[in-house]
Every structure is written in structure tokens, then in C-alpha cells.
Amino acid sequence: MNNRGDLEHFSDSLDDMFRRMGLSDPAVMAALSTEWDELAGVPWAGRSRPLYVKGSTLVVEASSGSMIAFLRYGEVNLLTTLAKRFGEGAITGIDIQPPGRS
User: Fold this and answer.
1) Cβ burial, residue 62 (10 Å; 0-12/13-18/19+)
2) Is the pTM of this model over 0.85?
């Protein structure tokens, strides 16, 4: 097998392992991390950070415990934005955590 075939097989194996663990595609998490403030917008930018995606739920850490209720008001808009960026069904829920809980 050539190197390209080996890499494709390895990539498929990793994707399968992530799915079995209930974790998302690492490329989605990488994009969320690097594009967060632009993607998330108000009220999320500067007040939260994405931690991980489990299944189709994005787990986000709020900058403070008091910010959690405030961020909940922006969930629908964020889910709409994420669906446009990653496709329908990729992220269907948001779990907002207080700082340091993860």
C-alpha cells in the first residue's frame, strides 16, 4: 500500500474511533477553536470558549458563572450560525459550563 493509502486508512480509523467515543470530527473542533469569536458573535465572543463536541452537543465554558444565563439567550442564533458553517445536524445543542468545570 502507498503512503497515501496508509494515511487515508489511518484517518478513517481515527474518525471511527472519535465516533465510537461520542466525539466529533477533530476538524470541526479545530475550526471552532480558531474561528470562535467570529462564528459565535454577540453575546458569545469574549465571554465563552468552546471546549469540545460530544455527539452533536457543543460544550462551551462561560467566562463566569453569572454569564451562563446571559449566554443562553443567544443559543438559537449560535446554533443557526453553526448549522450554516458545519451543516445541519452537526451541532444540535449547546451545554454551557461554568469556568473550571471541564
Assistant:
1) buried
2) no
